[in-house]
Write a structure and sequence with these properties.
446 residues, ABC transporter transmembrane region fold, Rossmann fold, 4-stranded antiparallel β-sheet, 16 helices, 51% helix, elongated
């Protein structure tokens, strides 16, 4: 009988199952326990495990674009409807869902492939247990045969559930792999300076770029290429250039959002690469291109740490030409602000960020196209307010409108990450061969 079983089983490797009770000595039950070995071996199958893991990885990667596209669509639904782009976004959503389905369907098929084989082996186990019971009916009692069948049915169900759960667990661990990738990303360097900084640093606001160059990621091309510029205390510098010239990258470098690949930046005689990030960023003020607000109130967005009085808050709101809007609300300074400031217009959000900068009043102010979302008249008023409030401060402005920087001390013109021109606006406009002259001409200033 044992030779017949070996011939039927073929190349399957047999071994005693760890679940077989040692006190059972009858041949039928031992055979039933030994037949569970092929099922236990499935969990070690390289074919299913590797295939399932790779399919799950592909499915997870293809699922992320669906969520990001959905978020982008919900945030810009008004613009999508205004420009009648609904069909294009629907097609894009369908394409991303189809790409995800192409990875999800094979993953489901692989699970079904495993389930079918488990069920076939389970049925074979019960069949052989019953067959051996019939063959050995003369030497076995009915209770022995019933025990063998009940144990075979129970163990096959347990093993089937265990192996399926084991495969699902390995597939779900792909999510942990993705989390581990983020945990292993290189964190921002802390950096410490050798001596205690003054509470008023930077006092003068002198900025020097000494052969500075940087890139966004290791292995990428340089976005800023060997810039050497000296900015004096209290100077108003306008930064202009074509798209991709490196204007915003220069402001990111001041906050060390991108680290230097060459050279250094010195502020008031101190190399900023030697400073702690929190210490550096808390001493500079920036009004970003995209306004950032938090859910709460206007008061908490202007003064999250309750350091200033209501009179100071109203004063900066008046300077930023937002006082009338706040007075028109029922709650005043306690007017609620939803997440990302969605209950306010883009221009109003930009003015809140401007008021926040007025409140901090550091000696270095960076404007990254800060008034791009407001009208021309409000822009002129804000520029006038900035000149009065930050008269003694160093101001770096990435110009969205050329006319806003015509009265600045100097203009820094960037081209392909390098300094193309750096002089006063009048001298650059007098020379018709300069890039600044062509930018002013395109903007209709000349």
């Amino acid at each position: 009988m044992s030779s017949d079983i070996s011939r039927i089983a073929g190349p399957v490797r047999w071994r005693v199952c760890r679940y077989a009770p040692l006190h059972v000595n009858n041949g039928a039950h031992r055979c039933a326990m030994r037949l569970t070995a092929p099922i236990a071996d499935i969990q070690h199958s390289k074919l299913y495990i590797k295939t399932s893991l790779q399919l799950k990885r592909l499915e997870s990667i293809s699922r992320s674009p669906i969520y990001s596209h959905l978020g982008e669509t919900l945030n810009g639904v008004s613009s999508i409807r205004a420009y009648d782009c609904m069909d294009r976004f629907i097609r894009e959503s369908d394409n991303r869902i189809d790409n995800n389905t192409k990875c999800l369907y094979p993953y489901i098929v692989a699970n079904s492939w495993l389930l079918i084989r488990l069920q076939v082996l389970s049925n074979l186990l019960v069949l052989f247990a019953a067959l051996f019971g019939v063959i050995g009916r003369d030497s076995l009692t009915g209770s022995d045969i019933g025990l063998s069948l009940s144990m075979a049915i129970t163990l096959t169900g347990i093993l089937e559930y265990f192996i399926d759960s084991f495969g699902q667990m390995l597939a779900l661990f792909v999510s942990f792999e993705r989390i581990d990738e983020y945990c292993c990303l290189e964190s921002e360097p802390i950096g410490q300076y050798g001596r205690q900084l003054s509470d008023k640093w930077p006092e003068n606001g002198c900025i020097s770029f000494v052969g500075y160059g940087s890139r966004y990621r290791q292995g990428f091309d340089l976005v800023i290429k060997g810039i050497t510029v000296n900015i004096k205390s209290g100077e108003k510098i306008g930064i202009v250039g074509r798209t991709g010239a490196g204007k915003s990258s220069l402001t990111l470098a001041l906050f060390r959002l991108i680290e230097p690949a060459m050279g250094r930046i010195v502020i008031d005689g101190i190399d900023i690469s030697q400073l702690g990030l929190h210490e550096l960023r808390s001493r500079l003020t920036i009004i970003p291109q995209e306004p950032v607000l938090f859910s709460g109130t206007i008061r908490s967005n202007l003064d999250p740490f309750d350091r200033f009085s209501d009179d100071q808050l109203w004063s900066v709101l008046e300077q930023s030409h937002l006082k009338e809007f706040v007075l028109s609300t029922d709650a005043g300074l306690d007017h609620p602000v939803t997440e990302s400031g969605d209950n306010m217009s883009v221009g109003q959000r930009q003015l809140v960020c401007l008021a926040r900068a007025f409140l901090r009043h550091s000696s270095i102010l960076i404007l990254d196209e800060a008034t791009a979302a407001v009208d021309v008249e409000t822009d002129a008023l804000i520029q006038q307010t900035i000149r009065q409030s930050f008269k003694s401060c160093t101001v770096l402005t990435i110009a969205h409108r050329i006319n806003t920087i015509l009265d600045y001390d100097r203009v820094l013109v960037l081209s392909d990450g390098r300094v193309a021109e750096f002089d006063s606006p009048d001298k650059l406009l007098d020379d018709r061969t300069t890039i600044f002259y062509s930018l002013a001409k395109d903007a209709g200033v000349i």
